[in-house]
Amino acid sequence: MKWSGEYRIIANDVDCNDVVSASNIFRYMQEAANSAMEEDGPSYNELFERGYAFILSRMRMSSYAPIHVHDKVEVQSWACESRGVQFPRCYRIIRDGMIVAEAVSVWALCGVQDKRLHRASEFDFAYRTDDMIELDVPARFKIPDDVTMKLVGERIVEYADIDMNGHMNNTRYPDLLCSYIGADMRGQRVISLGISYVSEAPLGETLKIYSGISDGVYYVRTVRENGQVNVEAEIIIEAI
């Protein structure tokens, strides 16, 4: 069973190409997930008050058609069978009966104070579940060794980036990363995006950003001040 909500795309969600950006696709999916959690219980805020937070580990999104301002869309979200410390969740965006985007994500449930990972068997969540979408979400995403990664910029994590956990929100990354792939995004849109979230980027942290390309696929890695990888991503774009 899937949670489903209807949304109307607003002007602030589209980029210079007049299509919804990758980050805003993520945001609609996240909004659906938050609504599903709130309706089924416990909500994200209720979990946070109990000392837990879902932390995104990796996400794979495929976009099959551009989404435009004022489009009316149905956004679905549902949990999938949890195993160990992995909590998968899927998403779909549907317009006029056609799937225009879908994604698979894997989350970890972490103690807010002790940062300890908790197993699915410790909880009896009532979130509605359904089958997993068949998108490639590898257990360990890794940029291929033969891709030359060059330092292309630095980015300070600012107030506008962070969420209630105090680090950059996962929906901020797609558009940020697209700014550093070395391609002019004017006239282009993201059709495939995979991100592995390795470590948190707190307020004030300076991230070094590296990018490379191989066989038409763009790769981006962000690295924290202590040398730890923040995120790694694989991005495919196409002309609109």
List the helices and strands and how they pair.
Blueprint: E1 3-8, H1 22-40, H2 44-49, E2 52-63, E3 72-79, E4 87-95, E5 98-111, E6 117-118, E7 150-156, H3 173-178, E8 188-197, E9 206-214, E10 217-223, E11 229-239
Antiparallel strand pairs: 1-3, 2-5, 2-8, 3-4, 4-5, 5-6, 7-9, 8-11, 9-10, 10-11
Architecture overview:
13% of the residues lie in helices and 40% in strands. Strands 1, 2, 3, 4, 5, 6, 7, 8, 9, 10 and 11 form an 11-stranded antiparallel beta sheet that branches. The longest helix is centred in the first third of the chain and has 19 residues. The relative contact order is 0.18. The model has no long low-confidence stretch (mean pLDDT 93).
Q: What proportion strand?
A: 35-45%
How many strands in all? 11
Helix and strand run:
EHHEEEEEEHEEEE
Average the pLDDT over all residues and give the rounded result: 93
Integer-rounded radius of gyration: 17 Å
Q: What kind of assembly state do the chains in view correspond to?
A: single chain
Query: What is the terminal separation in angstroms?
Result: 34 Å
Classification by helices and strands: mainly beta
The dominant shape is globular
Segments where pLDDT lies below 50 for 5+ residues?
none
Task: Give a short account of the largest sheet.
Answer: 11 strands, antiparallel
In helices, the fraction of residues equals 10-25%
Number of helices in the DSSP assignment: 3
Tags for this model:
240 residues, mainly beta, eleven-stranded antiparallel β-sheet, 13% helix, globular
Task: Write a brief caption for the model.
With 240 residues, the chain is mostly beta strands. The protein is built from 3 helices and 11 strands, in the order βααββββββαββββ.
